[in-house]
Write a structure and sequence with these properties.
Blueprint: E1 2-6, H1 11-27, E2 33-36, H2 37-40, H3 44-47, E3 52-55, H4 70-77, E4 82-83, H5 87-94, H6 96-105, E5 113-116, H7 119-129, E6 132-134, E7 146-151, E8 154-158, E9 163-169, E10 175-177, E11 180-184, E12 187-191, E13 194-196, E14 201-203, E15 205-212, E16 215-224, E17 241-246, H8 251-264, E18 268-275, E19 282-287, H9 311-320
Helix pairs in contact: 1-9
Length: 345
């Protein structure tokens, strides 16, 4: 049995995904059982029949022991199930710093990055690059990012909804007072990938590869028709954010996306890359459906959307594929060489 696990709290956000996966599986002659983590405890016998499990966001129920982790909870509820996206991969993709470190270690190109607890190092980094991006280590997408630059020696940040005078501190908590945003360490900062001139900035092209079992199913590009403020260079969300499907992507970008998926250990997910006319592509992020986050499916609202771009169909069909059994056979043992006898006269 194949199942899709999610939490009741997240049902408004994931039930459409569950529905589309089930529909695609049925069209392919299979079935996917939807089950919430809250209901799984009362259906232990049926859960024990599950041999493959696809995970969407959930929180462990309140009655679960505090020491129980999502991984051990799922193992207890579904003792025979293969988790399609292992928890180690889910946790790696949710931790952007850990993802970056893995990619750098394996030679995958990423933007110049600073991870530091020293405010002075952030100032030097921004001064060197002109513009930078202050990222949240565990946030998914670009909504929590802040574009940084220096104005008369002061660090300024733009998040899209607000523009701040940033006060970086080694300790404390994040708080906003008027236009002053106190931002405590650690600081996770990346160079803004863009073509930057004396009076203009052309943001990089942000593309996403949707990877299913070592193959790229399709590509999308996130863009804006207009760029009103610095935050628009890094954030494609909001009312002005747009998506479109790409038919032609460079061979280099394809190789980097597939290599990234292999390095992360991802079977099903998305790889974000950014490139300009003069540099890149660089990997920005790797996203998987998991107990902490989901892959953005807003591209389903594009008028050009059709069955070829149905990510949930690709996921369903991959879930239904059973591994080819290896036939057991025994190879003949090699004959022992005969010992040569010396014949002496």
């Amino acid at each position: 049995m194949i199942a899709c696990l999610y939490g009741e709290l997240y049902a408004p956000f994931v039930e459409e995904i569950v529905r589309d996966v089930r529909r695609a599986a049925a069209a392919a002659g299979g079935a996917v059982w939807p089950i919430t983590v809250e209901a799984a405890g009362a259906q232990r016998e049926r859960c024990a029949e599950v041999h493959r499990l696809y995970i969407l966001p959930f929180d462990p129920p309140a009655k679960v022991e505090p020491a129980e982790t999502p991984s051990t909870l799922v193992q207890a509820l579904f003792p025979r199930a293969e988790v399609v996206t292992p928890f180690a991969v889910q946790d790696l993709c949710s931790d952007k710093v850990a993802t970056q470190e893995r990619l750098v270690d394996r030679g995958i190109p990423v933007p110049d990055t600073l991870i530091s607890s020293e405010p002075a190092e952030v100032y030097d980094f921004v001064r060197t690059h002109g513009y930078a991006v202050l990222r949240d280590r565990y946030a998914c997408g670009s909504q929590s990012h802040i574009a940084l630059w220096l104005d008369e020696g002061h660090l300024v940040g733009d998040s899209g909804s607000h523009q701040y005078r940033l006060d970086l501190v080694r300790q404390g908590r994040r708080q906003l007072q008027g236009v002053h945003l106190t931002y405590p360490a650690p600081f996770y900062v990346q160079r803004l990938i863009a073509d930057i001139g004396p009076r203009w900035v052309t943001p990089g092209q942000v593309v996403r590869a949707y990877v299913i079992d070592h193959q790229i199913a399709f590509w999308t590009e996130a863009y804006r028709d207009r760029y009103h403020r610095p935050a628009d260079w890094i954030s494609t969300g909001g009312p002005d954010g747009r998506y479109r499907f790409l038919q032609n992507v460079s061979e280099e970008a394809q190789k980097i996306a597939l290599r990234t998926a292999d390095v992360i250990g991802m079977r099903m997910g998305a790889v974000d890359l950014v490139r300009t006319g003069s540099s890149g592509p660089y990997v920005l992020e790797v996203v998987v459906d998991s107990y902490r986050m989901i892959i953005d499916r807003q591209f389903k609202q594009i008028p050009e959307y059709r069955d070829f771009f149905d990510l949930d169909r690709y996921i369903a069909e991959a879930l239904l594929i059973e591994p080819t059994p290896v036939a057991t056979r025994r190879l003949p043992r090699p004959e022992k060489p005969r010992r040569r006898r010396d014949h002496r006269p």
